[in-house]
Design a protein that fits this description.
Elements (H helix, E strand, L loop, with lengths): L3 E3 L5 E5 L5 E4 L14 E5 L5 E5 L7 H12 L6 E5 L2 E2 L13 E4 L12 H4 L2 H11 L8 E7 L2 E3 L2 E3 L1 E6 L9 E7 L4 E8 L7 E6 L4 E6 L10 E8 L8 E8 L7 E2 L10 H6 L6 E8 L3 E6 L2 E9 L2 E6 L5 H20 L2
């Protein structure tokens, strides 16, 4: 799917969107056909949209499709079923040649909690939320969001947490990201979730040995494979307090909106290490500064990201090639580093 960069004799990173084996289309829009040789299966949702899965010829079964859909929509596999001609399909059945296959789900397998789950928002929400929050925003459009600190009680202890809410989309849908700080011996990290998705778990990690925050999207990859790196925020200033110089190193985004997919198996394959070696062919870097109440990043001489604090609420604005998830990660890194600086003052 486009050009590839060789990271080692066995590894390479290709270009694509956040979930390569799936194409999503609206009822009034026909998605382009895939150039892949693997068979494609189109499944319809109750809301009218359709999902086109690319399956291997040896595993084009109902079970394989259920597994992909569950991962895509961030719900338990037991909650997903396929229906054809009014009958629930058995796992071993091959999907090739079947027409008008529909996706249904069993809400009894979904987590019950205070946040609206997939049972309320609909099966389509898991697809729609991830497409909007993880993919780069459209070129020429400014996106806005708000960020607030929202402390939580975890195991009877007050935990640092943040809530990021993207502006409503064209049809009024709101999507939110949350990050909760977790304790660990290898570094500082935040567990990231998307409101309404039971099984989405990403993270933002800062190793003890460096002043950088790495953004990971584990759920973007298939089960059993490695997580995807979405970017690395590097803090270049040596001083603890006051204004700080920032770099945000991220996968390169092409004109068609696809981004380089970095899923390292070793440290030398990480975005940070590739950047240190000076290999910029498939990376791009935003430079900027942060102060007590403002953050700004530029790319190719233009402001790409800016945020300001008003009454304990951060107002965030950004544009292509960033995504909402990356904007959220930048904010978490800057604010957590400021928290560390205050602690060591």
């Amino acid at each position: 799917m486009g050009a590839a960069i060789h990271l080692s004799t066995k590894r390479q990173v290709v270009y694509g969107d956040y979930y390569l084996p799936v194409t999503v289309s609206n009822p009034d829009h026909t998605a382009p056909s895939s150039p892949r040789d693997e068979p494609e299966v189109t499944l319809s949702l109750m809301s009218g949209q359709s999902i086109k899965l690319t399956l291997s010829r040896r595993d084009a079964t109902v079970k394989a499709a259920r597994r992909q859909i569950a991962q895509l929509c961030c719900m338990p596999e037991q909650a997903v079923h396929l229906l054809n001609a009014g009958q629930v399909l058995e796992d071993e059945l091959l999907l090739i040649g079947l027409e008008s296959t529909q996706i249904i789900f069993d809400a009894s397998f979904l987590r019950k909690g205070p946040l609206p789950g997939v049972s309320r928002l609909g099966l389509w929400h898991g697809v729609q939320a991830r497409l909007r929050l993880l993919n780069p925003v459209a070129s020429g459009t400014w996106m806005t969001a708000t960020l607030r600190e929202a402390p939580r009680l975890v195991a009877q202890k007050r935990s640092v947490a943040f809530r990021y809410t993207a502006e409503a989309d064209d049809v009024g849908n709101l999507h939110s990201l949350s990050a909760v700080k977790k304790s660990g011996t290898s570094g500082r990290h935040f567990a990231v979730s998307i409101e309404g998705l039971d099984h989405y778990r990403a993270r933002i990690f800062r190793p003890l040995s460096s002043k950088e925050y790495v953004l990971y999207d584990p759920a973007a990859s298939m089960r059993g494979s490695e997580a995807r790196e979405m970017g690395c925020l590097r803090l270049r200033s040596k001083r603890r307090m006051g204004p700080s110089d920032l770099d945000f190193v991220m996968p390169k985004v092409k004109e068609d909106g696809t981004a380089a997919q970095f899923r390292p198996l070793a440290l030398k394959e990480s975005i940070s290490q590739i950047y240190e070696r000076g290999n910029m062919e498939h990376l791009q870097v935003l430079w900027g500064t942060s102060a007590d109440s403002s953050i700004e990043l530029q790319w190719q001489g233009c402001v790409i990201f800016e945020a300001c604090s008003i009454d304990k609420t951060w107002k965030v604005r950004f544009q292509h090639p960033l995504s909402h998830f990356q904007a959220f990660g930048i904010m978490i890194g800057v604010l957590d580093n400021a928290c560390l600086a205050s602690f060591h003052q």
